[in-house]
Amino acid sequence: MASEETIPIIVEFTGGLEMLFSGERKHRLSVPAKDSKGDAVTVGWLVDYLCDEAMKDNRKEMFVLDGHVRPGILVLINDADWELEGEASYALQPNDNILFVSTLHGG
Amino acid sequence: MDKATSSAEILRSQIAATEEELGRLKEQLAAVEAKEAEDLNRLSMQEKPGLVTQGNWPLELEEYKRYGRQMIVPNVGIQGQLRLKAASLLIVGAGGLGCPAAAYIAGAGVGTIGIVDGDIVETSNLHRQILHSTAKVGMKKVESAIEFLASLNPNVRFIAHNEHLSPQNAKEIVENYDVVLDCTDHPTSRYLISDICVLLHKPLISASALRTDGQLIVLNSPPLPHGDPSGGPCYRCVFPKPPPAESVVSCGDGGILGPVVGIMGVLQALEAIKLIAAGKLTAREGEKAGEASMLLFSANSNPPFRSVRLRARRQKCFACSKEGGLTLESLSSGSLDYVLFCGVTTPVKILEPQERIEAREYERVLNGGKGKDHLLVDVREKVQFDICSIEGSVNVPFSTLQGNRALAADEKPLWIPQTLPTNAPIYLVCRLGNDSQIVVRKLKEIGLDKDGRYIGDIKDGLKEWKKQVDSSWPEY
């Protein structure tokens, strides 16, 4: 039984990733607090959600590759590398800021 | 009358006597002055107790003037300045990052500066690569850079490495320096530079930029041996896997604002000066890495700067962990193929020869009286189309064709004019002839060619249009 409860979060894209999301860098989202199984939603869930719902571009492989965020993208949870926070299993909290940064190589 | 004459005589003789006296006084003064100067000279030659001579100061007098403004900043001081003078720093890449970085580092008085680059100066470099100039187009970048820097600060020793860094020359070049700046523009060089810095225990200051964004990370600082978790993370700790080659966008393709890459290069110089002046080129006894961070710059964000926390050394990092397996031998022997590791984009080759026409053939279509019966679609981004376009072409940017609903089967796209006959050919064109092929394929997939319509692209794009048809085309 999915609850109606939602949590507000901010999702941001930089380093060119914003082009996959209607050219918008900052997205204020309201996501369900629980997934279809009734578990708290995680960053891993968010990645799928963004891919399925928010992305207007067909080039999914520029964001997710082989079921993971593609190499060359850093995921930051409240300005910290998600590896410091439990990676995809991190449970989203209200007002979290999730930043996806594509590494740049130009110089 | 007689009286007047005699008083004039008297005055004349008085003037003559006074002039004679004046001449004598001048001679005396000159003699005194000469003696004074001689005495002064003799005095200054003597070692006088209580006065310190030039040789006892650690810097040349000119250097006190030159670096005075930075030496009186508490973070630098005389100690910091002496450390800068004793330091040697390697800049890999004399481009948009390397130029501003080098200018400030040379200005600050770093004693030895090496610059690695195998490229020559091009006109398209000049809006951001500030050491080069119009007159230096065609010159080796390293030589152009050193010419500028040597005139800025002749106290610095410059070392030219007129070649690209490679696994074969990396050790030989990097081992002579204390700290390295990665000012290159591709993942292959970024992994190579990080690896050699880990192996040779050099701190690495890495930056990158594209369009209006930049990124800066200080890596391998403190530069402790591999396997020591107290050392700073390396590039592979942060990015263990390279990005897919097709996701890597160069400044030539994506564009770059001069001040954006300039800011990042200047920040590299700042980090280098901080590191050297603070005496942090090597790890101190028991030193542990502080929290690693990455500085993000976005010209269009508010605030434009944002610092994010990165992870520490990765326990199983290929380069800096104990079990990693990276060695100087494996790197130098070329057994690590960085190009293979990062992948290469080969030019798109998905169309059959009959699906492509030469630029000169299209020119015949355009001017051969059949002009009305076809459509030329230019798939470059609008910002490029606005710079220049072939007369009569319509712009449908490649990115807009990526949307979920942009191209649906059996649905005529809105950008095809109502008046265009259903069998009229559609030609696709782009800058170099890659994207245009992909679009040809897509248009056929949705059945736009079902009424016997020809759909093809102009081979090698607008680059060939300039070569074969219109030499006045403004190539950008």
TrEMBL record, chain A:
The gene is URM1. The modification 1-thioglycine is found at G107. This is Ubiquitin-related modifier 1. Belongs to the URM1 family. Pathway: tRNA modification; 5-methoxycarbonylmethyl-2-thiouridine-tRNA biosynthesis. InterPro entries: Beta-grasp_dom_sf (IPR012675), Mopterin_synth/thiamin_S_b (IPR016155), Urm1 (IPR015221). Keywords: Cytoplasm, Isopeptide bond, tRNA processing, Ubl conjugation pathway. It comes from the Eukaryota. PANTHER family: RURM1 PROTEIN. It is found in: Cytoplasm. One of its GO terms (cellular component) is cytosol. C-terminal thiocarboxylation occurs in 2 steps, it is first acyl-adenylated (-COAMP) via the hesA/moeB/thiF part of UBA4, then thiocarboxylated (-COSH) via the rhodanese domain of UBA4. GO terms for biological process: protein urmylation; tRNA thio-modification; tRNA wobble uridine modification. There is a cross-link at G107 (Glycyl lysine isopeptide (Gly-Lys) (interchain with K-? in acceptor proteins)). SUPFAM superfamilies: MoaD/ThiS (SSF54285). Acts as a sulfur carrier required for 2-thiolation of mcm(5)S(2)U at tRNA wobble positions of cytosolic tRNA(Lys), tRNA(Glu) and tRNA(Gln). Serves as sulfur donor in tRNA 2-thiolation reaction by being thiocarboxylated (-COSH) at its C-terminus by the MOCS3 homolog UBA4. The sulfur is then transferred to tRNA to form 2-thiolation of mcm(5)S(2)U. Prior mcm(5) tRNA modification by the elongator complex is required for 2-thiolation. Also acts as a ubiquitin-like protein (UBL) that is covalently conjugated via an isopeptide bond to lysine residues of target proteins such as AHP1. It holds the Pfam family Urm1.
TrEMBL record, chain B:
One of its GO terms (biological process) is Mo-molybdopterin cofactor biosynthetic process. One of its GO terms (molecular function) is molybdopterin-synthase sulfurtransferase activity. Residues 1-35 form a coiled coil. Binds 1 zinc ion per subunit. SMART domains: RHOD. Pathway: tRNA modification; 5-methoxycarbonylmethyl-2-thiouridine-tRNA biosynthesis; Cofactor biosynthesis; molybdopterin biosynthesis. Gene3D superfamilies: NAD(P)-binding Rossmann-like Domain, Rhodanese-like domain. It is found in: Cytoplasm, Cytosol. Keywords: ATP-binding, Coiled coil, Cytoplasm, Metal-binding, Molybdenum cofactor biosynthesis, Multifunctional enzyme, Nucleotide-binding, Nucleotidyltransferase, Transferase, tRNA processing, Ubl conjugation pathway, Zinc. The active site is at C251 (glycyl thioester intermediate), C430 (cysteine persulfide intermediate). Zn(2+) binds at C234, C237, C317, C320. It catalyses: [molybdopterin-synthase sulfur-carrier protein]-C-terminal Gly-Gly + ATP + H(+) = [molybdopterin-synthase sulfur-carrier protein]-C-terminal Gly-Gly-AMP + diphosphate; [molybdopterin-synthase sulfur-carrier protein]-C-terminal Gly-Gly-AMP + S-sulfanyl-L-cysteinyl-[cysteine desulfurase] + AH2 = [molybdopterin-synthase sulfur-carrier protein]-C-terminal-Gly-aminoethanethioate + L-cysteinyl-[cysteine desulfurase] + A + AMP + 2 H(+). ATP binds at G96, D117, S124, N125, L126, H127, R128, K141, D185, H186. Its EC number is 2.7.7.80, 2.8.1.11. Its cofactor is Zn(2+). Plays a central role in 2-thiolation of mcm(5)S(2)U at tRNA wobble positions of cytosolic tRNA(Lys), tRNA(Glu) and tRNA(Gln). Also essential during biosynthesis of the molybdenum cofactor. Acts by mediating the C-terminal thiocarboxylation of sulfur carriers urm1 and MOCS2A. Its N-terminus first activates urm1 and MOCS2A as acyl-adenylates (-COAMP), then the persulfide sulfur on the catalytic cysteine is transferred to urm1 and MOCS2A to form thiocarboxylation (-COSH) of their C-terminus. Plays a central role in 2-thiolation of mcm(5)S(2)U at tRNA wobble positions of cytosolic tRNA(Lys), tRNA(Glu) and tRNA(Gln). Also essential during biosynthesis of the molybdenum cofactor. Acts by mediating the C-terminal thiocarboxylation of sulfur carriers urm1 and mocs2a. Its N-terminus first activates urm1 and mocs2a as acyl-adenylates (-COAMP), then the persulfide sulfur on the catalytic cysteine is transferred to urm1 and mocs2a to form thiocarboxylation (-COSH) of their C-terminus. In the N-terminal section; belongs to the HesA/MoeB/ThiF family. UBA4 subfamily. This is Adenylyltransferase and sulfurtransferase uba4. It comes from Hyaloscypha bicolor E. The lineage of its organism: Eukaryota, Fungi, Dikarya, Ascomycota, Pezizomycotina.
